Amino acid sequence: MFSIGELSRRTNVKIPTIRYYEESGLLDAPERTEGNQRRYDAAGLERLSFIKHARDLGFSIEAIAALIELQGHPDRSCAEATDIASAQLSDVRAKIKRLRALEKELVRISKGCDGNGMTEDCYVLASLADHRLCEREH
Amino acid sequence: MFSIGELSRRTNVKIPTIRYYEESGLLDAPERTEGNQRRYDAAGLERLSFIKHARDLGFSIEAIAALIELQGHPDRSCAEATDIASAQLSDVRAKIKRLRALEKELVRISKGCDGNGMTEDCYVLASLADHRLCEREH
DNA sequence: TCTTGAACCTCTAGTCACTGGAGATCGTAT
DNA sequence: ATACGATCTCCAGTGACTAGAGGTTCAAGA
Fold first, then answer.
1. pLDDT tens digits for chain A (138 residues)?
2. Residue A27 near residue A51, CB atoms below 8 Å
């Protein structure tokens, strides 16, 4: 049995975040001491590690809740879990695609100005003001 | 002179968002009709287009406010503007890097499970539960 | 046993960039 | 004159935390 601070140290999840996860229903409410302080066991640590890992991979709280639900039913098909994972993968890929387009445009804009002139003639500002100066949609 | 609805249509920025930009100081408060409705001119349209374009490129409201500030001083060096743009570029590149790592990990996790088994043996769930199954840090 | 001080508790509010709704008023076409 | 869509302000909600105030508890040392 260990305190919330100890759990925080072991998982690298901040204390208010742990309480937030509890409030959102991702973490079961743990036992309490007589003085009302939370005391966790190995199961709590495992659960929080799962959540942390999933959050690091960008899963939403909602998706994580669904994954935890599935974990609790070892006899159910895991198709749902793989669906959630592949949805997350598509999401990540879409974000990468969009960011690459932005990167290209930002490189183009930045190249146009060496930073030595006056704002009057700044290509950065001109590009932002006039969308026609862009090469592609974004 | 045109209404907020017309401005919204022309810029593809939603009406509440336009009001939000005004409240945040990015847009000057426009003239009003006798009945208190906003009426915009070409300058308002131009300004909002600038903001929209910068937001599409991922600049924060704060960064945009700084860029607008600079726009208003044509005689100042544009080094600051290029700095803001290159900071934004680094930011975008950092995000891409991180997302690529996540993508790799998600592909690996997804590959391990065909979705036909039971959750009990699901590699997706097992991977999330046990960080040691990951190939790299993320 | 007592005291200290770090750790913990709850509750509220703030972050960013919007988005949506309620309820009231305005503008314009017929 | 009337109808009705557009607009007004104000307030609350989103996601995933984060921070602070003000009070209580735990554990170690004297």
1. 999 999 999 999 999 999 999 999 999 999 999 999 999 999 999 999 999 999 999 999 999 999 999 998 988 888 989 999 999 999 999 999 999 999 999 999 988 888 888 988 899 999 998 877 776 666
2. yes
Same domain, B71 and B105: no
Q: Do B115 and A89 touch (CB under 8 A)?
A: no
In a domain? residue B67: yes
Residue B10 structure tokens:
């022309």
Domain range for B48: 4-76
Helix (H) or strand (E) holding A30: none
Record: contact A53-B128, CB cut-off 8 A: yes
Interface of B with A in 56-95 (CB under 8 A): 56-58, 67, 70-71, 73-79, 81-86, 88-89, 92-93, 95
Domain-located, residue A18:
yes
How much helix, strand and coil, in percent to the nearest 5, is found in chain A?
65, 5, 30
